[in-house]
Amino acid sequence: xxxxxxxxxxxxxxxxxxxxxxxxxxxxxxxxxxxxxxxxxxxxxxxxxxxxxxxxxxxxxxxxxxxxxxxxxxxxxxxxxxxxxxxxxxxxxxxxxxxxxxxxxxxxxxxxxxxxxxxxxxxxxxxxxxx
Length: 131
Fold this sequence. Notes:
Blueprint: H1 10-32, H2 42-65, H3 70-91, H4 96-130
């Protein structure tokens, strides 16, 4: 069943827009990683393939999360943390702290926005039931 987005609270609408934007960013980064497959190292190419698989799974979870699916939001760290680790240690050597900072800050903001959107949706459905 599809929720009526015109009646959705502002927090839920913002969360959906942010989720779609993040899906677009992650999906854009997947083909960009194809350039890394020209490496002579089979091990490096293996890390790139794993990174691309994790990014694909992350995009799918973000797509699911846009509907305020808590399971998808909870599962996101299972794909994003290993992807960030691979990026920081195996693909971008020596840039660990810089590579971790932005994704972790964005992830924290994403979770906070999810909680706000979920609370607004719960509050609105509670008010509708009371009428």
